[in-house]
Predict the 3D structure of the following.
Amino acid sequence: MSNSNNNKTFYQTSMMSALIAGLYQGDFTIGQLLDHGNFGIGTFNDLDGEMIVMGDDVYQLTSTGDVHLVDHDITTPFASVVNFAPTEKLSLIELSKNEFEACLEKDLLAHNAINAIRLTGKFSYVKTRTVPAQHRPYPPMVEVVKHQPIAEMTHVSGVMIGFKIPDYMIGINVPGFHFHFISDDRAQGGHVSDFILTEGEVEVEVFKDFHLRMPASQEFDQADLHPEDLKAAIHVTEK
């Protein structure tokens, strides 16, 4: 595994446990986020859809199926970005989601570091979900995800981007694999829950430096960010 990226940083605003606690309002703009990375995922104020950062373009994937670029002055309650320069590449064919993850675990990933991953290709099947916008008083996230629309796509080309996060970062981020998908025609996408890859290329870069920016709000300061059921709540909301 290459060590050329040791000085590069995985940058994150807020924490997954803050979303679990219902803190859906952010104080960090998309423009500020882009100062720290050109590749990443997250969400938007009011939990309004899924985010994909691709270069200077930031896409919002909404629960209504709409996909659009966002202005850089809007804010996010949770997002993670890196400056992506992959050090490992591998061509793949005919893999389920579980097979894909097992392949990466075996050959490409650093298990106790953060892995940035991009999978570009043709998919015979992609299943996504996208959380709808919420309104104050915000319901807990475990309740929100019970009502999220599910989309199923067949024979679609696109890109999945995301991260493999170490288990010890539970509550800070989402342990395990976490991907968002956007189609090549930029017409559909969301948080990935399942897929079957026909053919594609996966690219990986390992990050060992981590910067966490905490929200400045009093709401964040007073929230319970380590509830007893945190692990179960993250499993329900993300897996």
